[in-house]
Amino acid sequence: MNLAKNKVPKRFFMVDDLLRSPAGKLLKRKLRESFLKGEDSA
Fold it and tell me: Which conformational region is residue 27 in: left (phi greater than 0), alpha (psi within -120 to 50 degrees), or beta?
């Protein structure tokens, strides 16, 4: 089974640990913000 071209990720990023709330939920907004900060400096 193959994925459609528009669904295949263009890049992957490895992180040591994911930001989580005290309830254990993934903080997608914070993760996105930290990614964009790193993207600007590159």
Answer: beta
Sole residue written with tokens 């669904």:
7
* CA–CA gap between residue 11 and residue 24 (Å, rounded): 26
In this prediction the pTM is: 0.52
pLDDT in tens, 1-42: 788 999 998 888 888 888 899 999 999 998 888 888 876 544
Rounded Cα–Cα distance for residues 25 and 30 (Å):
12
In the Cβ-directed half-sphere of 1, how many Cα atoms lie within 13 Å? Answer: 1
The answer to whether residues 27 and 19 touch, using CB atoms and an 8 Å cutoff, is: yes
